[in-house]
Write a structure and sequence with these properties.
The structure is a single chain. The protein is α/β, with parallel strands linked by helices. Helix content is 35%, strand content 22%. Strands 3-2-1-4-13-14-15-16 form an eight-stranded mixed sheet. Helix 2 packs antiparallel against helix 15 and helix 11 packs across helix 12. The relative contact order is 0.17. The mean pLDDT is 96. The structure holds zinc ion. Zinc ion binds next to loops.
């Protein structure tokens, strides 16, 4: 038994925003067994000054996009020109370098309070499309990287079959494809989770998976009782192509193929018709917004309030990792919508915190995490209130301060499954995550330069 004494903690359902003082968290193995507010500090309890909250869930990640940070953000273009840069990185990775990159990225996530990541994984095969000796070598590298960094991963193994509505895979896209949905399912079937790893499924998008292949992926997720994720309407061009090819919006198409529902997380959901919003909400499909990426790629602002009103839970992800900061993602749901609607107070801060914690964990298939309550997984994060950013936080406005002012850099301590992963701002399992990131990015840059 280990116990932690929290100066302040967000306890129970984060959507209620209940903040208590002098909270004793008692941990046995990987679970919280007791949560006691107003406690005395027992001898031996680890003191956590500041505010402790449930671990943050980063619901949408493509680890290899981290190699584009600072390399793709200036200059003209749009999503499609950025995609060419992204493909150039994808072309250079192998299981060894992907492991090194993901390990450094997942350590960066841990340092900023992320305790679970949803890795939307489609970089499956060798350049040209040949299978590795183990066809899951790349996915296994990602799972190992998360284990090294001490965070949970849901590997969302992604079906990717087409280069567009009327195009075959070409160039680097051949690395993404299994040929057909049965071959995808056979490969995904061989993946194994672990104490910190679970397997889920993904349809890359209606661009990349033809309608007859969408249903079998959804059925696979249903049969295995695992999450199903899908990119949805990030770009208007996807909607236009889908309407032209199938006379339906991407949302309607996914609905017709049985791919919506509470097990499904639709990522982005930026450009939707009113009927799409109603359909997603009525099916209780989860929406993952990735505002810092959607900004970076000039995508647009999705109708988060309308989706929530219609019945869709919201969660967040850092997607391309232009920024890894779940506080920034959560507040951006509100702040970006303010810019569109010209008014404030659209999403209560407690609901934004729920998006980054409990709702995110549910979307990743870890419903037993994301809430500080007895019986849940002992995954929690402490934010100092001594930084200049958070100095003067009022006791009656802790959640609002966290959501609107905290950054990942204010995270001091992270516990995942009862294990101390970050202590006093230092990663406990990886000696120097920044150096590890620098080393792998330098070697990838060299590889591009042909050194
Ligand atoms: Zn994505």
């Amino acid at each position: 038994m280990t116990s932690y004494f929290c100066e302040l903690a967000v306890i129970g359902d984060p959507a209620r925003g209940d903040v208590a003082g002098s909270v004793l968290l008692e941990v046995e193995e990987d679970r919280l067994v007791k949560v006691t507010p107003g406690s005395d500090r027992p001898n031996g309890a680890v003191l956590l000054p500041g505010v402790t909250l449930p671990g943050l869930a980063n619901v949408h990640s493509h680890a290899f996009h981290r190699a584009l940070r600072g390399r793709s953000q200036s200059g003209p273009g749009d999503f499609w020109t950025w995609r060419e840069q992204m493909y150039a990185v994808a072309a250079r990775l192998d299981p060894e370098s992907y492991f090194a990159l993901a390990r450094a990225l997942f350590a960066e996530m841990a340092l900023s309070g992320v305790t679970a990541v949803g890795e939307f994984h489609y970089l499956h095969h060798e350049p040209g499309g040949r299978r590795y000796d183990d066809p899951n070598a790349m996915g296994i590298a990602l799972i190992a990287a998360a284990a090294d960094a001490g965070i949970r991963i849901t590997l969302l193994d992604t079906c990717y079959l087409k280069g567009g509505f009327d195009r075959e895979l070409e160039g680097v896209q051949r690395r993404f494809g299994d040929g057909n949905v049965d071959a995808w399912a056979e490969r995904a079937e061989a993946l194994r989770g672990g104490p910190l790893a679970r397997i889920g499924a993904a349809v890359h998008s209606v661009r990349a998976v033809d309608p007859p292949s969408i249903g079998p992926v959804a059925a696979w997720a249903h049969d295995h009782e695992v999450p199903l994720h899908v990119h949805l309407s990030e770009q208007r061009a996807e909607n236009e192509g889908c309407l032209e090819a199938f006379r339906r919006t991407p949302t309607r198409l996914l609905g017709d193929e049985g791919a919506l529902g509470p097990r499904t997380t639709a990522v982005h959901a930026t450009h939707l018709e009113l009927q799409d919003v109603q359909l997603l909400g009525s099916e209780r499909t989860v929406i993952c917004m990735c505002p810092t990426t959607e900004r970076d790629l000039a995508d647009g602002v999705g109708p988060a309030r309308a989706l929530a009103n219609a019945g869709s839970p919201l969660c967040v992800g850092s997607d391309s990792h232009a920024v890894v900061d779940l506080f920034e993602e959560a507040r951006s749901i509100e702040l970006d919508e303010r810019l569109v609607r010209h008014r404030r107070g659209i999403h209560p801060p407690e609901k934004l915190l729920e998006a980054a914690t409990l709702a995110g964990h549910r979307a990743l298939g870890w419903p037993e995490a994301g809430c500080l309550a007895p019986g849940t997984l002992a995954d929690f994060v402490t934010v100092t209130l001594n930084s200049s950013r958070l100095a003067g936080t009022r006791p009656d406005a802790v959640v609002a301060s966290l959501v609107f002012a905290a950054t990942g850099a204010d995270v001091t301590d992270v516990v995942v499954g009862g294990r101390r992963v970050v202590t006093a701002g230092r990663h406990q399992l990886i000696e120097d995550p920044a150096r590890a990131m620098n080393d792998v990015l330098t070697s990838l840059d060299d590889r591009r330069a042909g050194k």
